[in-house]
Design brief:
Layout lengths: L13 H10 L5 H8 L3 H10 L19 H29 L3 H4 L6 H18 L3 H7 L5 H17 L2 H13 L1 H4 L26
Helix pairs in contact: 2-3, 4-6, 4-9, 6-8, 7-8
């Protein structure tokens, strides 16, 4: 007897289909494939097509990563270095432009202060490759979307040669030369990726 395939029906013989319908609840897809000598993809497709119950495969526990005291101390040290670099950026911008660190981290939204804050976002993201989250947390617990917006604003100001931005650029060049070289104009706006060096031309201060 020739079996005629129905539209969109998986390609399995009638005898295999009957066995699957009778036994699917007692076996996993992999176990049925081994017993029937066919591909698990076909059996899985057939079970999904007819909404057949089947036994779930047991989950293998993930091996736990054992942290040694040395690994913990190394991670703490790395975090301290990153935090110190980020604080150095914030303090350098604040001192050069004439604000305090507390003002940069405050909720105030006057344009001069917002621009200084956005410069910090841009430098930290571009040259040190911090995440949006870590940058935002260091500058008054701001969310990642605020940081992304601020970075894009700096790119716009650099292209249009915004007067206030150019003024701050000169102040940073004079009073904080160690971070000024990180403010070179970028070619394009940031993506949604956590960090993408190819988006920027990076030049560190010699």
């Amino acid at each position: 007897m020739t079996y005629t395939l129905q539209a969109n029906e998986p390609r399995l013989t009638p005898s295999i289909k009957n066995w699957i319908q009778a036994n699917s609840k007692d076996f996993t897809i992999k176990e049925m494939a081994e017993k029937l000598g066919t591909y698990p993809q076909l059996i899985g497709s057939y079970c999904n097509h007819y909404d057949l119950p089947r036994k779930k495969a047991p989950r293998m526990p993930r091996p736990k990563k054992i942290l040694t005291q040395a690994m913990i101390e190394e991670q703490i040290k790395e975090n301290e270095i990153l935090n110190n670099k980020l604080n150095e950026i914030i303090e350098g911008v604040a001192k050069a432009i004439g604000f305090t660190v507390n003002e940069l981290r405050s909720k105030k939204r006057i344009r001069h202060l917002v621009l200084a804050r956005q410069i910090c976002y841009y430098i930290a993201y571009k040259d040190e490759c911090y995440t949006y989250k870590s940058i935002g947390e260091s500058l008054g617990q701001r969310d990642h979307s605020t940081v992304m917006h601020g970075i894009n604003k700096i790119i716009d100001y650099a292209k249009t040669k915004d007067t206030l931005f150019e003024k701050y650029l000169e102040a940073i060049k004079e009073k904080a030369p160690h971070i000024h070289s990180k403010l070179l104009p970028a070619k394009s706006k940031v993506s949604t990726e956590p960090c993408n060096y190819s988006r920027f031309k990076i030049q560190r201060h010699a």
